[in-house]
Amino acid sequence: MNKTTRLLAVPALSIGMLAMAGAPAMADHANGSYTAEFGQLSGTTGTASFTMDINDTEATVNLQVSGLAETFMDGPYPHVQHIHGGAAGECPTADNDENGDGIVSTTDGAGSYGGILTTLSTSGDTSAAAGLDLTLGGQGGNYSVERTFEMNKETLDSLEAGTAVVVIHGLDPATVTATEEAFNAESDLDPALPLGATSPALCGVVTASQMGAMPEGGADTGVAQETNNLGMIALGGGLVLAAAVGGTYVVRRRAADRA
After folding, report:
1. Under 8 Å between Cβ of 204 and 91
2. Tell me, what's the pLDDT at 151?
3. Largest CA distance in the chain
4. Residues of the chain scoring pLDDT < 70
5. Most buried residue, 49, 55, 92, 249, by most Cβ within 10 Å?
6. How many other β-carbons are positioned within 10 Å of the β-carbon of residue 17?
7. In degrees rounded to 5, what are phi and psi of residue 4?
8. Do the Cβ atoms of 165 and 113 come closer than 8 Å?
């Protein structure tokens, strides 16, 4: 089994907080179209566009991602993304970097965007539990998620309340605003993986738009600024990346990649 196979076979990525897998939604209060303008975190150069139409409990999602980290352990870099909610409905900024290491970790940002409500998986399960499977995440630096699925009540409620936020994880060691040592420090979510690999790269607040409206251009680099108390978020069941064979992964900057 090669390194890529081990990486994708073992991590059951548990970024789900509070396991918000409620009963099917039974309301149409969130009907309409939504979009998000993404801000870049911790030195990422990636961009994304997002649209979502809600019809009763049916969601049609179109997420286009480009320019993120391409490889991890000599295989496609798995990027996971979710609709978070239940908190301030904002994206974190560098001011949320609690220890000043140059990386806004998942824990640093949790007070702003809250726990997982929906996993924007490339196929299959879209519940919070689907965040446990990296094979359902985007692979490589450029990918898309285009699908229609049944939306859960928690996400519909968050959309109506204006607190839904899309977060895309996985920083590039070649562009991160941190040292190699900081990138490869123990993840706040799983000590066997690098902090940079589990931290958010792009974040966008979900807002209502006109029906059928599409976002123009790439990601907006501006994000709302707010410092929040992490005590408001229960990280029970938090973001846990299981490491293959108990090993610790190190991602190194490669000069060849920057040539």
Report:
1. yes
2. 97
3. 53
4. 1-27, 132, 210-259
5. 92
6. 25
7. -65, -45
8. yes
Contact 166, 204 (CB under 8 A): yes
Dist CA 103 CA 38 (whole Å): 17
CB atoms inside a 10 Å sphere around CB 99: 11
Give the span between the Cα atoms of 48 and 46, in whole angstroms.
7
Token pair, residue 2, equals 């090669």
C-alpha dihedral (142, 170, 91, 32), degrees to nearest 10: 40
Q: What is the pLDDT of residue 132?
A: 61
* Of residues 85, 94, 15, 81, the one with CA closest to residue 48: 81
- Assessment of whether the complete model's pTM goes beyond 0.85: no
Asked if 52 and 81 count as a contact pair (C-beta separation under 8 A), the reply is: no
Cβ–Cβ < 8 Å for 169, 81: yes
